[in-house]
């Protein structure tokens, strides 16, 4: 966020989003950058104000909160994703079956509705599409790490 906005925010490491959320609600920290799912209830109750979401599209659970792009931060698309990986030598038939079953689950009305309440949009697809997403994100964040001078500890 510092690189894209020029802000001079200080990263405060927490063991989890819950602690950070508690500190933001209690006024110990001025803002929190966290998952929509953990913040949506607090924003809807008025305890927190949603400034922007970092995904390319608005969160369906917070339709009045703009994206960073809409707020004027060009090319700011930072989305978290969760995927399923299997060992490289897993037979193709098993990979295809797992993919078929996961796609069916992720498109079921019950799951789509539940995820939407949390601000999560499922993106069913193919193993190849997921592989391309991984490659793209690794390249993007490699540049962020180099620019920021981040070193492994």
Question: In words, what does this structure look like?
Answer:
The chain has 153 residues and is an all-alpha fold. 46% of the residues lie in helices and 0% in strands. The two termini are 22 Å apart.
Topology overview:
Layout: H1 2-5, H2 17-26, H3 36-45, H4 92-106, H5 109-117, H6 127-148
Beta-strand content bin: under 5%
Distance N terminus to C terminus?
22 Å
What structural class do you assign from the helix and strand content?
mainly alpha
Output the number of helix runs.
6
Contiguous low-pLDDT stretches (5 residues minimum) are none
Summarize the structure.
This protein is mainly alpha-helical. The protein is built from 6 helices and no strands. Helices cover 46% and strands 0% of the residues.
What structural keywords apply?
153 residues, mainly alpha, D-Maltodextrin-Binding Protein, domain 2, 2 domains, globular
């Amino acid at each position: 966020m510092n690189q894209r906005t020029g802000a001079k925010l200080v990263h405060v490491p927490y063991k989890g989003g819950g602690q950070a959320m508690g500190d933001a609600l209690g006024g110990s920290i001025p803002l929190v950058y966290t998952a929509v799912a953990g913040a949506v209830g607090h924003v809807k109750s008025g305890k927190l104000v949603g400034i922007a979401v970092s995904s390319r599209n608005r969160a369906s659970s917070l339709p009045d909160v703009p994206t960073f792009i809409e707020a004027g931060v060009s090319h700011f698309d930072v989305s978290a994703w969760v995927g399923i990986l299997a060992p490289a030598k897993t037979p193709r038939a098993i990979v295809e079956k797992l993919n078929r079953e996961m796609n069916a689950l992720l498109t079921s009305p019950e799951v789509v509705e539940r995820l939407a309440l949390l601000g999560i949009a499922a993106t069913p697809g193919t193993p190849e599409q997921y592989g391309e997403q991984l490659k793209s994100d690794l390249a993007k964040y490699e540049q962020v790490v180099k620019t920021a001078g981040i070193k492994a500890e």
